[in-house]
Amino acid sequence: MKYFDSETITKIRQGYYTAVYFNRTKEILLKVNNLKRVTMQIFQKKKGSILSGVEEVRELMESATGFFKGSSWIDKSPELKVSTLNDGDDISAWETVMHLMGPYVYFAHLESIYLGILARRTLVATNTRRAVEAAGGKPVIFFADRFDHFLNQEGDGAAAKIGGASAICTDAMTKWAGGEPAGTIPHALIAVLGGSTVKSAELFNKYYPGEKLIALVDFNNDCVTDSLAVSGRLGDKLWAVRLDTPADIADKSLEQKKDNFGVNPSLVRAVREALDKAGFAKVKIIVSGGFYPEKIAKFTAEKVPVDGYGVGSALIHGENDFTADIVEVEGQKKAKIGREYKDIRKIFR
What we know:
Blueprint: H1 6-13, H2 20-31, E1 37-44, E2 49-50, H3 54-64, E3 66-69, E4 72-75, E5 81-84, E6 90-91, E7 96-103, H4 104-107, H5 111-134, E8 140-142, H6 153-163, E9 167-168, H7 171-177, H8 187-192, H9 197-207, E10 213-216, H10 223-234, E11 238-243, H11 265-277, E12 284-288, H12 293-301, E13 308-311, E14 322-329, E15 332-333
Parallel strand pairs: 8-9, 8-13, 10-11, 11-12, 12-13
Antiparallel strand pairs: 1-7, 1-14, 2-6, 3-4, 5-7, 14-15
Helix pairs in contact: 3-5, 5-6, 5-12, 6-7, 9-10, 10-11
C-alpha cells in the first residue's frame, strides 16, 4: 500500500476514526442482513477547486471495504465500484466528483475517512494552484511544514504538487509526491553563528555543495548590505538571496513607514538594483513571509523582480468540505429532498 500502513487500515476497519453513528448504522444493517446496493454521490460546493485525494480514497476503498465476522476481516472490495474524476481536475461547485456503488453496509464506516481525505487534499491543492496562478510562471515553494500537525505532511506535500508547487520542503512531503525536499537557510543558523549571514552561507555551501545556495539576508534587517556581502564572498556559488523581513518592521534601506513594512515591492527593487549595479545580476531573489495569492498577484501585476515565492500558512488554511449522499438504492432513485443523481462528466475508471 502506498498511502496507508496495515496498522492504520486495521483501525479504519474497526471504525476507530469514524463518527459513531456510521459505525452503529453498519452494525444495524449487518444484524438485519441488509445488503442493498446504493450509489453514494460525492461533491463539494466551491467554485474552481482542484480535486485531490482521489488515489488515496481508491486505496482506502480497496483496503477497508468489508466487515468483521468475529475477529476475521471479510474483504468485500470486489463488490464496490468507484467512478471518479482525476486528481488535479478543476471542479465546479456542486459537481459530482465520485460515485461509490455497492452494498452500503460494506462501506458505511468509511464516510468520515473518505470525505476528510478529499476535503484536506483538495483544500491544499486548490490553495497552491491559486498561488501558482498568481505567481505568473514564477516558482512557488511549499513552506507549510510548521503551520499544522506534522503528520499531515505526507498528504499535504502530494496535494501541493498536484496544485503546481515547484518544490516541497520535508522528506515526509516527498513520500507520496516523489523528488527531493528543497530549502534555504533558517534564521536560527545565522543566530548561532553570531548573526553572520556570510558565515551561514559559507558553511551551507561547504557541507551541501550540491544544493542551490539561497542565502537568507534579512536577519540584520539590512537586506541590501547583506545581499551584497554574501554575493561578494560566494560569487558564482550563490544562486539566490531570500528576503523574509517581518511584517511589523521596515528594512534599514527604506523609509520607516508602514507601506515599507515586511517584504514589499520597494525592498525587492532596492535589492535587485544593488545586486545589478555591483555585477551580481545572476543572483536571484526569493521572497517569503506573509505571502498569499492576493499579495503574489499584486507583485506580479507590478512586475516586481521576484524569481520565486516561499509560501506557508496561506496554502493550508481555509475549508473545502465534501458531502456524500445516497442517491440510488437498488437501482431506483432515492435521495433526501434537495439531492438527486448527477452523472460524472468524465469517468476515471
